[in-house]
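Bumping my old thread because nobody answered last time. Still need a sequence for this structure:
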């Protein structure tokens, strides 16, 4: 199971992170580097080469999960300078289609990893970053608090198998988007 020709270090890291995400989603933070290696089709040594320890891999996974969501949101920001652009993108990235399932998965994954030293701080930094970005987006403290809390709440419901139905998610999205218009 050596290195595959043509796959560079970044590709291998991506493979490991994707495998780690799958394994932690099923087993939680008790999963081992051997579990991740097996899921990635690599040796344990290959995993350790890129991530020196399970703690290092779990921290990298937490950062990756949060960064991927940031990227997803930022690709959905509408053109222009109208206040609430980021919040609307955040709402769309969380509530369109079946995205709420991804919110639940992300929250449960991060909760599983929270026992890892450093992960709670990473999650707290991420939350502070969202709050700061939404301040720059022109939203009131009440609007941004309701939006962030409502999306996380719906995501937790989905994670527990209590996913709101499409009509409920559409209604939630409409109400939250109303909060993104400071003139209303």
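Sorry it took so long. Here it is:
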């Amino acid at each position: 199971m050596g290195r595959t020709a043509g796959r560079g270090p970044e590709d291998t890291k991506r493979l490991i992170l994707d495998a780690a995400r799958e394994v932690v989603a099923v087993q939680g933070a008790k999963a081992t580097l051997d579990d991740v290696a097996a899921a990635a089709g690599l040796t344990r040594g290959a995993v350790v080469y890129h991530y020196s320890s399970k703690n290092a891999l779990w921290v990298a996974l937490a950062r990756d999960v949060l960064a991927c969501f940031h990227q997803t949101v930022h690709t959905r920001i509408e053109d222009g300078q109208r206040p609430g652009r980021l919040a609307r993108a955040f709402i769309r990235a969380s509530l369109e289609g079946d995205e709420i399932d991804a919110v639940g998965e992300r929250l449960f994954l991060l909760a599983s990893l929270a026992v890892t030293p450093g992960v709670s701080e990473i999650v707290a930094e991420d939350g502070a970053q969202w709050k700061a970005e939404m301040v720059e987006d022109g939203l009131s403290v009440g609007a941004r608090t309701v939006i962030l809390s409502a999306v996380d709440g719906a995501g937790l419901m989905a994670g527990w198998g209590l996913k709101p139905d499409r009509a409920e998610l559409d209604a939630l999205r409409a109400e939250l988007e109303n909060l993104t218009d400071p003139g209303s």
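Residues 3 and 184 are 57 Å apart (CA to CA). Let me know if any region looks off to you.
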